[in-house]
Each structure stands twice: as structure tokens, then as C-alpha cells.
Amino acid sequence: MRLSYYLSAGRCIENLPRKRGSQAAVDLPLSPVPPPPSVVVVPQSLRIASDLVSAKVKLDDQQPADLQDGQFTSEAIGWGKHTIEITSGGVKTVVVFEATAGRAPVLSAPPTAKEAKAVVVTSFGNQARIQATYSPVKVTVDNQDFGEIGPNGLDVPNLTVANHDVVLTEGKDRHTMSLTVGSAPILQVQIYSDRNVGSLLIQTGEDGVRVEIDGRGQRKWGRAAKGPLPIFR
Predict the structure, then answer these.
(1) Looking at the domain assignment, is residue 230 inside a domain?
(2) Are strands 65-66 and 56-59 parallel, antiparallel or unpaired?
(3) What is the pTM assigned to this prediction?
(4) Which residue range forms the structural domain that includes residue 143?
(5) d(CA 69, CA 53)
(6) φ, ψ for residue 79 (rounded to 5)?
(7) 151-190 confidence digits (pLDDT tens)
(8) Is 145 among the domain residues?
């Protein structure tokens, strides 16, 4: 006999001693089947960084939000298809993608950029893909050459779960960015308007961190600080 939701006992009941005319009592301890391990679904993360003094980001039909210090972060993008628009004066970048649980977001079309250059990184686990609105672009990650970004992007496999330094080279022009991979599906958008600015990557394990450069307050993080900080001249 097999009972649902219980493990098989597998005990032999032959040749059990019993009295004539009576039935033998059989003791079968039953162990319930343990529940399946819980699956924690990590939500889609969106990270935008730029060298723009001011800009707005619009996700689907939501109200536009301001970039703070050239950046925008959302850790709870819903599953499904989305359109991101980043605008600042004549600068406009559009990224259309689909977010699915348990995998990297997928771009529905190549990203576009007007009066700027945009780089889009999609990642999940230890895999990442880099796409750009300009070419040819040579890519190095942590000083390792990965080749050029093609029409369908460039795969960057076997990354450790951490932040990685990326260098993008187009002729004599050189741009840098930080690539982050982890347990969450991440979409990163980096916009370069080629203004005379730089960026500084800051990462701490402390909350409530305030950053000052040359005595001027730049930003205060409510949670553990992590991410590139644009420095405007």
C-alpha cells in the first residue's frame, strides 16, 4: 500500500509470529514527505548612471523621476515588458526590455541614444551581456580583454559575484563603468555625454554614509553605500 505525502516504509511483514485464528499486528511508522525547499525570487533591479547634471527617467507610463547625482536605482521592477526613457535637454536614451524571474533581462530591441552614448548591461548570476549604441567598442573587464561589442552585444561569462571594472575603448576615446553581477537579475544603463567629468566608485558596509569631496557634500546613502559617484567640475 502506498499513501500519498508519506515516504515508503519498505518493511517486510512475512513470517510474523501470530496466534491461530488471529491477525498479526503490524507497526509501520510513517514519515511525511518533507516540503520542497522554498524558492526565493529576487526582484528585477534597474540601475542608471550618467555624467548628466540633471535628467529625468521614465519607466513605462509612470511619472518621470529625477536622476540624483546623475543616477537612478530601483530594486523592484515588475516582471514583463518595460520601456525606459532617460532625457536631459536634447539627450534621449531609450531601452526596451523584458524582465523574467530567474534569468537576465532581455532587450527587445537595440538601445538607442541621441546626443549621447549609451551602454546597457544585462546580468544574472555569473553571466553578463554588454550592448552599446555606438561601435566599434573594445571591452576589457578587470584588465581582461573580451573583444568587441557586436550587433548582438558581447557576452561576458564566468564572472564572480561582485563589482567589476569595465573599460570601453572607441578609437582614442576611453570610458569606464562598474559592472555588478549577483543573485538578482540586473539591468544597468550607463550614459556618456562626453562632458568634462569623472566618476569615483565608492563601496562600504556602513549605513548613513555621507560623502564629501573638497569639503562639499556629494551624497548620503541610507543603506550600505555602493555605486559610482559622478564628479562634476
Answers:
(1) no
(2) antiparallel
(3) 0.70
(4) 44-195
(5) 7
(6) -75, 150
(7) 889 999 999 998 999 999 999 999 999 998 988 999 999 9
(8) yes
